[in-house]
Amino acid sequence: MKKTNIKRIVIKVGSNLLIKDGEINKTYIIELSRKISNLYKRGIKVILISSGANAAGLNYLNLSRAKTLLQKQAICSIGQVQMMKIYENAFNFFGQKISQILLTKDDFTNRKRFLNLKNTLIGLNQLNILPIINENDSISTEEIMFGDNDMLSAMFSIGWNADGLMLMTSVDGVYNDEKKIMKEFKDESSILSMKKTSYGSGGINSKIDSAKLSSNSGIKTCICNGKKLENIDYFINNESCGTMFFPKKKIKNRKAWIIFLSKSKGRVFINSGAKEALEENKSLLSIGVIKVYGSFEKGDVVDIYDENEDKIGKGIINYSYIETVKIIGKKSSEFEKILGYYSYDELIHRDNIGIVK
Ligand SMILES: Nc1ncnc2c1ncn2[C@@H]1O[C@H](COP(=O)(O)OP(=O)(O)O)[C@@H](O)[C@H]1O
Ligand SMILES: N[C@@H](CCC(=O)OP(=O)(O)O)C(=O)O
């Protein structure tokens, strides 16, 4: 067995892999469970992100499709049980215990909920339990939904600090306009425009966007054929599989959350001197701020723009919008006189800044 540098891997399986002829594909799930259980036995930690609730619910109720959003939400809650019943039986066969976590986008953007999620994952890890994750379709409304499990997988991989992410689907990877699988994704290449498969909700574009997000944060990512489970071995053994998205510099923990997962509540525009300071990994002082927009409180995340109005980063701000407006362009020694109190020298501390450019 080859040594691997992948210790934590997120594997996402799409609906089309899990449903065959309208029914949950039990044979596939058993093979997938065998593979993942073996990885656990090798000490490789896996998170399985599984779609299929909608398709399984339709099959359970003998329906061809949901008529309304309300029905779709109900059907997903029904189908999720069917999926988990089969996963439980399959993993049990290989001696691997499982848990279920259903998530919305809020669970990532809200730092408290995100830290709670991380704690749950630490607990599951200590107990050697495999978490199986899906979007919480039954309660997801427009503002808090991922819309598909591809983006959920990318955000999850960043938050969990994964080494690798496999987006497994029913084709061999991304086809270019010459109908060939791209071995490595290149931004400038043209993609073949094909219709997505019947059950899938994301399609290839959401897989590409998600793979770009995770590889930009430093996670090795691929879009590959999940019917060929040997792809998991290739990926772990550092061989090529499907379409590869090779990682940029690894961004970890707090900074990764700020840059990739948090939701900005405002915008802060800074002058060239402040920009230079940020590039040298210094804190943002209010004296370098030109203008500010938004509706944020102390502790919220804001986007940071330079004088040319290009976004250069994000950060957790130490003062509310109302306070920040009053201290723009001022030195911290003046804060007490202006605000009547004084809490922080920095508007955004260097530890709470993530540079994106
Ligand atoms: N350029 C492309 N390369 C690969 N697949 C494509 C491309 N354009 C569209 N597709 C379609 O996207 C599908 C994958 O998306 P989707 O149906 O959402 O899958 P899943 O259910 O696995 O998430 C493929 O099966 C294929 O039919
Ligand atoms: N959460 C939904 C699946 C959403 C989704 O992304 O589906 P897919 O494109 O097949 O991975 C479900 O369980 O049916």
From TrEMBL:
Question: Does the keyword field hold Lipoprotein?
Answer: no
Per UniProt, the enzyme's principal EC class comes to transferase
Task: Give binding positions for substrate.
Answer: S51, D137, N149
Domain PUA, by residue range, is 266-348
Alphabetized UniProt keyword annotations: Amino-acid biosynthesis, ATP-binding, Cytoplasm, Kinase, Nucleotide-binding, Proline biosynthesis, Transferase
Provide a GO CC annotation, any one: cytosol
| Major localization class | cytoplasm
Pathway(s) this gene product operates in, as recorded in its UniProt entry: Amino-acid biosynthesis; L-proline biosynthesis; L-glutamate 5-semialdehyde from L-glutamate: step 1/2
For biological process, the GO terms are: L-proline biosynthetic process
Under InterPro entries, the record lists: AceGlu_kinase-like_sf, Asp/Glu/Uridylate_kinase, G5K_ProB, Glu/AcGlu_kinase, Glu_5kinase, Glu_5kinase/COase_Synthase, PUA, PUA-like_sf
Q: Does the keyword rRNA-binding apply?
A: no
Q: Which GO terms describe its molecular function?
A: ATP binding; glutamate 5-kinase activity; RNA binding
Cite the binding residues for ATP.
Answer: K12, S201, G202, G203, I204, N205, S206, K207
Name of a matching Pfam family: AA_kinase
PROSITE patterns named in the record: PUA
Catalysed reaction, written as an equation = L-glutamate + ATP = L-glutamyl 5-phosphate + ADP
Which family does this protein fall into? Answer: Belongs to the glutamate 5-kinase family.
Q: What does this protein do?
A: Catalyzes the transfer of a phosphate group to glutamate to form L-glutamate 5-phosphate.
The UniProt entry, under HAMAP family, shows: ProB (MF_00456)
Protein name, as recorded? Glutamate 5-kinase
